[in-house]
Design goal:
alpha/beta; 10 helices; 11 strands; 38% helix; isomerase; NAD(P)-bd_dom
Length: 315
């Protein structure tokens, strides 16, 4: 079990509760048992394709779960909240790198007081937009300290090989799909478009190692705890990305190096709505939180391959 592996890796006793966040009563019982200094809210449905097919399910789960957590926090006097947001709130960018205050869409008169107007291209992304708007409203109460962390493309696995992602079925994202091709589960990877105005003609994205991403969360909480008791921090937004764009072909070559396998590529036309490149300006997180990424693209692939090969090594 992942939770047992986490306990062994951290060498700490970890308290776990199996609670559905849509069940407010069960959630509230957890808050009755413990006094929390801060809450990091990760739980959400996250498959973009599924969100298009089942939008009501996504709005229900991703909004109601957040509201239940916030209600429980309000009742029990916890006012520090870190939200797992996404670069999908930027929609289709007009320019890169993306900064937190960039205008990314047209919501008419509905903008975000943190700076940017936000519009997403799918219901999953819209749930992140709506969550952020709720948090902005809540942060008008000066007792709250709220941070939204906008992830770019998290990949990789824990360097121990003990924690990672190996999804069942056909993966929605490039990295897990490449892993399955390298393992021989699929014959090839389809690359959509090789005529973009990029270094090798394939799409460019900002990938961030999950270990770097996790560090961003600890820095966010540390920044909250450093404030004096009762001194709220309002609402802050940070991009968490490497600030570097890697092409699809660069990712494929790095995975070939990690796995020692040749990965067959099938070229296909561009998909509607796909963009040439997207990557973060993470300078705000560097200046205000001290956040910087340390892992390379090759390390992302090496660590992922180690995990799917079952090469778990405890310290």
């Amino acid at each position: 079990m992942a939770k047992d592996r986490i306990a062994r890796l951290t060498m700490k006793k970890i308290i776990w509760y199996n609670v559905d966040l849509l069940d407010y009563r069960s959630l509230e019982l957890v808050f009755q048992r413990h006094k929390f200094a801060a809450v990091i809210h990760f739980a959400a449905l996250k498959a973009v394709g599924e969100s298009v097919e089942q939008p009501v399910k996504y709005y229900d789960h991703n909004l109601r779960s957040s509201l239940n957590v916030l209600k429980a926090m309000q009742v029990h006097g916890c006012r520090r909240f870190v939200f797992s947001s996404s670069a999908t709130v930027y929609g289709i960018p007009k320019s890169v790198p993306l900064v937190e205050t960039v205008t990314v869409g047209d919501l008419g008169d509905v903008g975000t007081r943190a700076g940017a107007k936000s519009i997403a291209t799918n219901p999953y992304g819209q749930t992140k937009v709506f969550n952020e708007r709720i948090l902005e409203d809540l942060a008008e109460d000066s007792s709250w300290d709220i941070i939204s962390l906008r992830y770019f493309n998290p990949v990789g696995a824990h360097p121990s090989g003990c924690l990672g992602e190996d999804p069942n079925g056909i993966p929605n994202n490039l990295m897990p799909f490449l892993l399955k091709v390298a393992k021989g589960e699929y014959a090839n990877v389809k690359v959509f478009g090789n005529d973009y105005p990029t270094k090798d003609g394939t799409g460019v994205r900002d990938y961030i190692h999950v270990v770097d991403l996790a560090q961003g969360h600890t820095l966010a909480v540390d920044s909250m705890l450093a404030r004096k008791s009762g001194e709220g921090g309002g609402y802050r937004v940070y991009n968490l990305g490497s600030g570097v764009g890697y092409s699809v072909m660069e990712m494929i070559k790095a995975m070939e190096t990690a796995s020692g396998q040749s990965i067959s590529v099938e070229l296909a036309p561009r998909r509607a709505g796909d963009i040439a490149e997207c990557y973060a300006d993470a300078s705000k997180a560097l200046i205000e939180l001290g956040f910087r990424t340390n892992k390379t693209l090759q390390q992302m692939c090496d660590d992922s391959w180690r995990f799917v090969q079952g090469q778990c090594t405890y310290p």
